[in-house]
Design a protein that fits this description.
It is found in: Membrane. It is a multi-pass membrane protein. With 300 residues, the protein is mostly helical. It has 14 helices and no strands.
């Protein structure tokens, strides 16, 4: 006997957008705002628009796209999700993803040309991450890189571009790219929880390709090296105290990594919850270093 679909349920729309995932790009967007050196109060409207763009729209779109193209697997593994359960019936998952893509591009265009092209690039990666024939998520090298760029680099760039209404300074772009590269390692942490299932499904995450120990060592290096480069740049730019603060955060991460490396499968979630906050704190400290430069240079 076929189970009748419950029909479209509006509450399921928020669920399929996975609001918990919005924090990372919104935090990176805030770093972009801070690093621009521009006053916040006089830009509150574009900041609000940028927050909506980075979180609910672009990130939310990526989540809907992912759930749509994973609907067949979710029907087996997580049948209660909105799309396989029928709470978002038929092809409405695809329609919602397309509508949200259009809304994202429209808002990005209103916020400026550089914001628009950043949104185009981010949305293209969001679709390529989940959509055949690309399915970047099936390979940990490509998929984690795409997520790192979309969750850290592009929102940081967008936050600065919204404030300066132009191409952000090279130092801003450099830090955004470095922290986005390090986020590749953060994404690897999420892959330790399903090594056996990913192996059976042909999902070539880094723990599947390199083994748990190899992937854990790589993740730690990928997270640490960009921060070392950030520290060197902050020293080069004349910000020793900010550099020292990032050093302190990196030392704490290193100590936590020791436990993680002893048993990566068991401690990956633990490190993600305890160690990653120190990583993202360094992002904001670095952003304030650039803000100090902007203020000294005579920014309002």
């Amino acid at each position: 006997m076929q189970t009748k679909s419950p029909g479209f349920q509006p509450a399921a729309l928020l669920e399929v957008m996975h609001p918990v995932t919005w924090f990372a790009p919104m935090w990176a967007f805030a770093c972009g705002i801070v690093s621009s050196g521009q006053p916040v109060l006089s830009h509150w409207l574009v900041i609000l628009g940028g927050i909506v763009l980075a979180g609910p729209l672009v990130c939310g779109t990526s989540q809907v796209v992912n759930d749509w193209f994973d609907r067949h697997v979710d029907a087996i593994n997580e049948p209660d999700r909105p799309i396989p359960s029928g709470r978002i019936p038929g092809r409405w998952g695809l329609y919602i993803a397309l509508i949200m893509t259009g809304l994202s591009l429209a808002l990005a265009w209103a916020l400026g040309i550089w914001v628009f092209w950043a949104a185009v690039f981010g949305l293209a990666l969001a679709w390529a991450y989940s959509m055949p024939p690309f399915r970047l998520k099936l390979n940990g090298w490509w998929g984690n890189g795409a997520v790192g760029l979309c969750y850290e680099s592009l929102p940081w760039f967008t936050g600065a571009a919204v404030m300066v209404t132009a191409l952000p300074d090279g130092a801003i772009i450099a830090l955004a790219l470095l922290y986005g590269a390090g986020a590749h390692g953060i994404m690897t942490l999420n892959d330790f929880k399903a090594i056996e299932g990913d192996t059976q499904m042909g999902v070539r995450t880094l723990p599947v390709q390199l083994g748990a120990d190899g992937a854990a060592r790589l993740a730690c290096w990928v997270m640490a090296v960009p921060q070392v480069v950030v520290i060197a740049l902050l020293l080069l730019w004349g910000h020793p105290w900010y550099a020292l603060a990032v050093v302190g955060l990196l030392v704490v991460q290193g100590l936590l990594m020791i436990r993680f490396l002893r048993d990566p499968v068991r401690h990956a979630r633990w490190y993600s919850g305890l160690g990653v906050p120190f990583y993202v704190s360094g992002m904001m400290i670095s952003a304030f270093a650039l803000r100090a430069d902007a203020l000294l240079a005579g920014a309002p």
